[in-house]
């Protein structure tokens, strides 16, 4: 599925919940209450972990930024996983940054279930 289609789908769900006055417990966000990680896609290739931390820190304390890179070249694969100290910050990040324009790109921000950071492979 086109990443921009997913961005619009999340925006529409949020708009519908807001217009119907859906409670926090009944929100689609409640499905992710046990995960403090979010997925960030369509990141500009020149971005670093520090760039992501600077942008996403406005919604809470960041405890991990995993910018996924190609093993051989070390170049960004243009997506990352960001963890917050408090899961409630994930809701703010998803609601406020999904569909945002960053360096001319529309980023996708979504919740993640069961994310486990992989240990670095030894050379």
UniProtKB/TrEMBL annotation:
One of its GO terms (cellular component) is U2 snRNP. Residues 36-114 form the RRM domain. GO terms for biological process: mRNA splicing, via spliceosome. Pfam families: RRM_1 (PF00076). InterPro entries: Nucleotide-bd_a/b_plait_sf, RBD_domain_sf, RNA_proc/Spliceosome_comp, RRM_dom, RRM_Ist3-like. It comes from the Eukaryota. The keyword RNA-binding applies. GO terms for molecular function: RNA binding. Keywords: RNA-binding. The keyword Ion transport does not apply. PANTHER family: RNA-BINDING MOTIF PROTEIN, X-LINKED 2. This is RRM domain-containing protein. It comes from Erythranthe guttata (Yellow monkey flower).
């Amino acid at each position: 599925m086109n990443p921009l289609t997913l961005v619009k789908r999340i925006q529409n769900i949020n708009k519908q919940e807001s217009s119907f006055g859906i409670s926090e417990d009944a929100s689609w966000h409640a499905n992710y209450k046990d995960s403090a990680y979010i997925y960030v896609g369509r990141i500009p290739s020149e971005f670093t972990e520090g760039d992501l931390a600077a942008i996403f820190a406005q919604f809470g304390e960041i405890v991990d930024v995993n910018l996924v890179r190609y093993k051989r070249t070390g170049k960004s694969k243009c997506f990352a996983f960001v963890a917050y100290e408090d899961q409630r910050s994930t809701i703010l990040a998803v609601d406020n940054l999904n569909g945002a324009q960053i360096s001319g790109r529309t980023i996708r921000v979504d919740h993640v279930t069961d994310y486990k950071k992989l240990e670095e492979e030894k050379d």
